[in-house]
């Protein structure tokens, strides 16, 4: 039983490390100027509430 638990924990750690590595690679290749420009072109999402 302990061996199965250890194996599962090891697999979860490997999955997490893989996701972090992939995410890091994606961020290195991302042009943040485009992200900022896209964000500024979006319509305002604020909802203006009026007090009664």
Plain-language structure description:
This protein is mainly α and 52 residues long. The protein has helices spanning 2-28, 32-41. The model has no long low-confidence stretch (mean pLDDT 80).
Approximately how much beta-strand content do the residues carry?
under 5%
Major beta-sheet overview: none
Indicate the mean pLDDT: 80
The helix/strand order is HH
Q: Figure out the total of helices.
A: 2
Low-confidence region ranges: none
Radius of gyration: 21 Å
Globular, elongated, flat, extended or rod-shaped: what is the shape?
A: elongated
Helix content bin: over 70%
Structural class: mainly alpha
Distance between the termini: 63 Å
* Count of β-strands: 0
Q: What attributes characterize this protein structure?
A:
mainly alpha, 52 residues, 0% strand, single chain
Write the layout of secondary structure elements.
Layout: H1 2-28, H2 32-41
């Amino acid at each position: 039983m302990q061996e199965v638990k250890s194996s599962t924990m090891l697999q979860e750690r490997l999955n997490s490390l893989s996701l972090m590595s992939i995410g890091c690679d994606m961020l290195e290749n991302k042009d943040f100027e485009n992200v900022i420009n896209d964000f500024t072109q979006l319509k305002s999402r604020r909802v203006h509430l009026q007090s009664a």
